[in-house]
Amino acid sequence: MANVQTIDIDGKSYDVDSLSDEARSQLGNIQAVDLELKRLDQQKAIAQTARNAYARALQEELAKVEPQQ
Fold it and tell me: Distance between CA 45 and CA 64 in Å, rounded?
């Protein structure tokens, strides 16, 4: 029995092998962009974690200084 790869788009299932070269190319583009979006989400999470650490460090330093009213 052959292993048929399918993709679901807008509630419809398509045999990937039956897609045109252009459709497969666009599918590959979408997959590449999805990977990049995932990578950027991870980078954003890393940056947010760093920002939180810097904010905590600033709060600790500000606690040592008398604020000007």
Answer: 29
